[in-house]
């Protein structure tokens, strides 16, 4: 039985490899240097090259934009094993994702679990076709770590909701077509029980955005304002006041993304950068303190990757806790912060260069500053530790 | 290859857990200590032999089970959880592995049966100074006719006072050679040393000790190569025990946080303690992965086995200190009393993390392996 399966998987691998080699243009196999090297889709979407258009359209026709979704939702219905093979082969050839979209990584899984069949049939194929650029409206100026205290309100106006309030940290809100949003629909209930999950067209009257500049410079983040925005009732996902459950489910996916799970790009090893920059004596980096710190970092980095593998393998046998995503988010982001600390130390005074041209200057220093956000966005390290201690360790709350 | 243990390995782990919690829990270790530092309980050892654990890593061609080092690692982890004492590390993880790696067929055929029966116990004599290292040894073996003559001294030999055979690492010029030496040979003097884990170790001196040339473990095989392979096994095996210590010290501490009351609440409700516990949990998650990977690499003859073994011993050496230090602190006053068991975990951790090189040693080796 087992050999049979692996034989057909092997066939699938051979076919997949051949198809990718024949259909993925060479320029679509080059490493991504900028997020906008990728195709994001959307109403105003433009392909940056003919190759990019070809690659997207071929993958769309093959139904491999979101290959693991069912055919009726625009996918190819690949099994997890087949999807793994496809991902591995794409990584092996260096193929770019044909479409980069929060609709695939975040909204899609939530719709699949909580939306009505009509909603799924309406929204999921649009995601696959890259017709809508989605953004996420969760945090508010006064609801960060305490997300459930959010105040953006949706007032029931009979045939529609009227939405007033503001969101912050909405990535690419200024470029997005639609937003999936948490809003307060019950003002009497306890804070977790009065929240709903709703989809809003950013072209609606009363929606406006303002970009946020970070300590690292320009960023995709925006503030988003809703001033009496009319939203049809059918845009509500799941049950009224069930939004928190959906949000938690979605945050698990976001944490894994920020924690680095599923990342395919290969980062240069810190010790190789160190050897290019630091004095070396008898084959050893002369700064023995920095040498130790690099070795400790690389120890943890390598074992963290093995831990992703172990937990993924355990999940296949059904031995897995969802709360582990908090562990991955916590540890993965702290590791990335350590990495940037080391790169700054290795770079010495050269690493301090900021320059006047944001696009070309000060890459090290800007990335260092940006890394400081890693342990804050998607739930702070402290929030992740709270979740681990409550959900995994079972430590009591007062 | 999936980074998980198989059903069979899980069954072995469960039976080890059953035996150790029933027959060799921490209370037994305390009792052995309080009975003139008795090294181990002979009846437990006989039961372990009866379970087949001494044959676990012996190849089938020598009537062993050839079950692999992941299996042995599961037993060592369970022994670590219970602080169970037995010659499993000295005689099987180290001694039997030296034999397994040997290319001296006659010696293997002659020695394996007694080792598997548990009647012949091996101890591994390598360390000479205060620290573990494998680059050079002062203990010399010089060929004279049919025999080698060994001179030198070894320290911190695990179970060195109870073993009847010693595996001795010697060097002559650039060549490393390993021998099996009868512990009663003329010219050997053994002095007992009790370390902080209440374990029995030995300082051993060799003065013109005659060893038949047929007792050499490496014939055509380079002694250095044999030693490297053996070290990968030693680092991974001790790391498996350290993982057991981490897990148990952590579990006991979490339990304590849920029971101990101060200021009218259980102390586990305090966020400062919750976060420390969650950090320990995270570090132990990493430890689980690298111990399994290191054991798996040995079973698969992975050319990177030594690297993974260094990674395991480095990570476990660092983490076991963190976990047991925090375990004592989170227990508060009771944690520093001899009445509480948690102190035994601190003490065993300190010895086991030092054996075969601490975190600093392995971190340094890892950097060297990568060329910096």
Number of domains of chain B: 3
**CATH superfamily caption of the largest domain in chain A:** Butyryl-CoA Dehydrogenase, subunit A, domain 3
The Cα radius of gyration of chain A reads 23 Å
Q: State the CATH class of the largest domain in chain A.
A: Mainly Alpha
Following the backbone from N to C, one meets helices and strands of chain B in this order, namely HHHHHHEEEEEEEHEEHHHH
Distance between the termini of chain B: 30 Å
Proportion in β-strands of chain A: 5-15%
Radius of gyration of chain B: 21 Å
CATH class of the largest domain in chain B: Mainly Alpha
Strand order of the largest sheet of chain B: 2-3-7-6
Can you tell me about this structure?
The complex is a heterodimer of chains A (398) and B (372). Chain A contains eleven helices and ten strands. With 398 residues, chain A is an alpha+beta fold. Chain A folds into three domains: 99 residues, Butyryl-Coa Dehydrogenase, subunit A, domain 1, CATH 1.10.540; 109 residues, Butyryl-CoA Dehydrogenase, subunit A, domain 2 (Beta Barrel), CATH 2.40.110.10; 134 residues, Butyryl-CoA Dehydrogenase, subunit A, domain 3, CATH 1.20.140. In chain A, the strands form three sheets. Chain A has a four-stranded mixed β-sheet with strand order 1-4-5-8. A four-stranded antiparallel β-sheet of chain A has the order 2-3-7-6, with no helix packed on it. In chain A, helix 4 packs antiparallel against helix 5. The longest helix of chain B is centred in the middle third of the chain and has 37 residues. Chain B has a four-stranded antiparallel β-sheet, with no helix packed on it. The chains are: A alpha+beta (398), B alpha+beta (372).
Quick summary:
The complex is a heterodimer of chains A (398) and B (372). Helices cover 43% and strands 13% of the residues of chain A. By secondary structure, chain A is α+β, with helices and mostly antiparallel strands.
Outline the fold blueprint.
The complex is a heterodimer of chains A (398) and B (372).
Chain A: H1 2-23, H2 50-62, H3 80-93, H4 102-114, H5 117-128, E1 134-137, E2 153-156, E3 160-168, E4 178-184, E5 195-201, E6 207-211, E7 222-232, E8 236-237, H6 243-258, H7 270-277, E9 280-281, E10 284-285, H8 288-316, H9 324-347, H10 363-371, H11 381-392
Chain B: H1 7-23, H2 26-34, H3 42-50, H4 69-82, H5 88-101, H6 105-117, E1 122-125, E2 140-144, E3 147-158, E4 165-172, E5 175-182, E6 188-194, E7 200-212, H7 223-259, E8 261-262, E9 265-266, H8 271-299, H9 305-331, H10 342-354, H11 359-369
Parallel strand pairs in B: 1-4
Antiparallel strand pairs in B: 2-3, 3-7, 4-5, 6-7, 8-9
